[in-house]
Amino acid sequence: MNTVATESRPDGYVxxxxxQATLSxxxxxxxxxxxxxxxxxxxxxxxxxxxxxxxxKEPPFFFQKNPDNLVPDATSFxxxxxxxxxxxxxxLLVALKSGGDDIAVEDALDCVYGYGVxxxxxxxxxxxxxxxxxxxxxxxxxxEMSAPAGPLYPVSKIGHPTDGDIWLKINEETRQSGDLNxxxxxxxxxxxxxxxxxxxxxxxxxxxxxxxxxxxxxRGDRMHAHVAGVGDLHxxxx
Length: 238
What we know:
It is a single chain. By secondary structure, this protein is α+β, with helices and mostly antiparallel strands. It contains 6 helices and 18 strands. The longest helix is centred in the last third of the chain and has 11 residues, at 187-197. The mean pLDDT is 93.
């Protein structure tokens, strides 16, 4: 049997380590290192209804994207392979500076570093296939460049957004529209519940759900995502 020797590296790794996933910070050269990405499903009542669910009967549920699915300061979204039905989902993003287990709701906001605008892009056809089979959603949610994100705005500058418009336009036409106060599970509650399921860490990111109006994008579309008090994100679908 032939074997191939692995050359030793001065840093102790057998291969080059992957780059640290990061998000930019508004008006700063510093970067926010990302540990994990948690996503909250169906956190706006109208969106839950449009997806065929009753929001009054469901506790919160979570799924994950990969840290390197985040695209900081994205200006384009490459249409992904293996799908013919890719949907936009605009979301408020929460970035944590601290974590822990079993965090009380009243203490949860102390964990937040800042907020940003993000998109949970979804291969809806592939996600639908997995739902029918009772399988995980990763191929529908956690594909490359599936989470474009704008810069983070620290709590010290903008406080904690609890209300205000959240919307997305395609080619200047409003497709999604809601208000942050329509979130079923508020930011502090999401952090608290997540901390009963996982040990939250500094660098964790939470994508907080999307309002109604999700729908498909096509190559050439111009997307404009907005969260009041947080900012805007402009992208072209390539």
